[in-house]
Records
---
Amino acid sequence: MSVTKLDNESIAWRAAQDIHDGAYVNLGIGIPELCAQFQPEGRKAIFHTENGVLGFGQAPEAGQEDWDLINAGKKAITLEPGAAFFHHADSFAMVRGGHLDVAILGAFQVSEKGDLANWRLGASGVPAVGGAMDLIHGAKRVAIITDHITKDGSPKLVEACTYSLTGVACVNRIYTSLAVIDVTSRGFVLREKLPSISLDELQKLTGAPLQIEDTVVDLFVPELH
Amino acid sequence: MDKTVDSLIDAVAMIPDGATVMIGGFGGSGAPIELIHALIDRFKKTDSPKDLTVINNNSGNGQVGLAAMIREAMVTKLICSFPRSAEPQVFNEAYSAGAIELELVPQGTLAERMRAAGAGIPAFYTPTSFGTELAVGKPTAEFEGKPYVQERWLKADFALIKGELGDPLGNLTYRKVARNFNPVMAMAAHTTIVQVSQLVNAGDIDPEVVITPGIFVNTLVEVRDPQQEEDLMRAKETYPRAVAS
């Protein structure tokens, strides 16, 4: 089955539409970081990075990097007016104390109970957890950006995670390459799907039942390139 | 009172074999490269200190700083949250050879365990890691209907940290995000050793902007124009520098 799917930028664009003006937001390293580029006109979120900044902006021009001004991905950043520095315990007090509005992370697997696995694939290699386990319990809303299926075609949305857990019952919403899905007490609830894929096809690519409440809206992303 | 010493060698002279050492920084920012290299110099000359337990957010990068300590086999155990970097070969080789033990701690728990130690709080509860393999064997409890994991304070014999301004009483400021773990490590360690980029007179740092009050600091040494781990790593530097043959 060949299905047109959203690329990473497009998934990030869709996720960015749900970030409200003035929200305090932590974006995970990698694809979630792309959300910062797609804030809707007139809205301005305040971005938090674990290593001690609120209110950072874009990357500096090449050659203008200050390596004492980096984000959690160790990439050079700039500051927006009104930015603030703080130490690591205060940074994670913001996270763990429930002060962040939104955290957006990547995933290997998400279960229909909202369990997340995103830090360790199997027992080999060097395990590295960083701040993911803190973010998923601290933020008021936890959203995931992910391909709907793995490279070999297995569902990433599953009944129960088989990889090492990052946390239990922590995910609120999943933005995939095919759909927008909420995690509720009834399991996965389908909110939006690409019009090019049928409900049956989408269900076949999903490892747990997709519930329907009300109507399923067409998932629309404008041309970004 | 004057907590300053004149040389890096003097600053790190008291760290013995088997010590637990917190090393500040997040990646390269805030990493006290000159203090680390002074420790490596001492080890190369005297075979001490070794068998160290190091606490850092990461596991070193390239062939300088913490990575060089690991390469020289000074470190037997690393407590950290994210043992990955752009150039992680040194740690990866030591880990896969079984030459270094790893205790993985979620980043917020790592910082809070240090703050708890600094504040005299032996344990606390957090939802972080509940239901995961990092919570195995730890007590849990329910508060207001939610499950929490008990975590213990994290102390150290020494902290090696980097400040921007410092005065003889040990009052410190930091530069931008180079602050990161440095203030909580200063609180959590029995003896805190600081390299500052500029030593100033008592009274020259406005009390309103002191970030680490001097009570948490034992020893300061001035290192003007300190090296940045990121720059060294990008320049493919190795410490100690290979002697041309």
---
Amino acid sequence: MNTGVRPAEILLVEDNADDVELMRISFDRNRFAANLHVVTNGEDCMDFLKRQGEWSAAPRPDLLLLDLNMPRMDGREVLEQIVHDPKLCDIPIVVLTTSTADPDISAAYKLRCSSYIVKPVDFEQFTRVVRGITDYWFSLVVLPTSRHTAE
Amino acid sequence: MVERLIRGMSADSISGFSKLLDALPVAIVIVDSTGNVVTGNERAARLFGRNRSMLDGMPVENLMPERFRASHPAWRNRFARQPEPRAMGAGRPLWGLRADGTEFPLEVGLSPVETPEGHFVLATVADISEREQTRRLEQAVHALEHSNIELRRFAHVASHDLQTPMRSIASFLQLIQAEYGGRLDDKGRGWIDRVVSSVHHLQRLVRDLLDYSNLDSVTHSHAPVDTAQVVRDALLLLDSAIQESEAVVIVGSLPTVPGVRSQLLQLFQNVIGNALKYRGDRPPRVEVGARPVEGGWEFHVSDNGIGIVPRHRERIFEIFQRLHDQSKYPGTGIGLAVCRRIVEAHGGRIWVESESGVGSTFRFQLMGPRSEETWTI
């Protein structure tokens, strides 16, 4: 649970600058205290999680918001790498994508994503989706990171 | 000419040998070391469109198209130096020439024949036109499959790459409306509304188009489908439209048919959805039923809606064909085209009976998979 001791650390993996901006606005509008970190492809995502390169001081994210279609390394490969990494596999991952294709959805769950959300076209709905995500992951469920926030 | 093979053959032996050649189930041509035909059997004569007697003494090059003739003697000499049974041409395409000038693809097996009179070559000739045609057909099928894969990839990319900018346009306009709407007058706000609703329409178009293209690009297996359950599911999906229009939907007894469940759900959802959408002033009354017909089932979905005038009854099943403007009945003109494709994939057809102002009855037959052999579409 987010005890209010610190803001939530959320890593958004998204290559589309507009979607990043909309996500920021949605967090602001929902008045949710989060450090929203943004990387634009799967390679950077893995570097962030492993604190490599320019992300040596990166916090461990409480939640990963992952787009599927990205340049260089796409979301499927990210899921694949995380699920097989004992140090990272307990980070909840919400896939947030435009794809409604059944194979994408089933592949993402097979790679143990926590949930799969199709990005709504409508901004009001987009804001509701973000509220749903924060309500669920930071008020309702207990996250593995919340137990060692004192670290 | 056969006497040239074995000196001193009696007339009876010659006639017997000829009969033997003719009895063989393959076309045979025997050629001497100078490249002249000694004899050929009846099948060979027929293959090249000639009388048997015309073959005798003819240069074997006359049986091939002009373009192969100059190089052939060299090939013959090569065989004479190494006389072993083998296929002629070694992978090169071979063509035969009929007396009427037409060509045909062929395969030739060569065997050396040694007699006291000299070296001869026995050639068995097979017309492979049919095999070639099959091969070309297979190539065409392969190319088609390839283009289907391309299409599927295209649809997939389109779904992502078109929707992303649409979301940006709609979202930022909504933000402008929310944050700066107060500084605009009614006209400005109205224009923003128009853009937002256009983008929403564009999004529906892309989504429907994807559904339509997915029908062809995805292989589905047919299995028994309980259409009563499918209609119940379709009505659940249409629940808000039913509530809103205060519709009454009466469902008769429905059969189990072979088909693709997801497609049949889409079919019923589209047809029943149309019945609710194109309603008149009264609350819609929709009736769904089925009756057995030879080889399958005929379903109907009847409504008391606005109806369709006769001249449009074919057009409505064409993609992008619409009868109404967006403001009265919004839509993409793809729904019924999807229905037609689904019905055709189930070996049936769809049509509409209607009286303008009274109502419409959509009928479609589901006869099982289009191809009995594969049970896939």
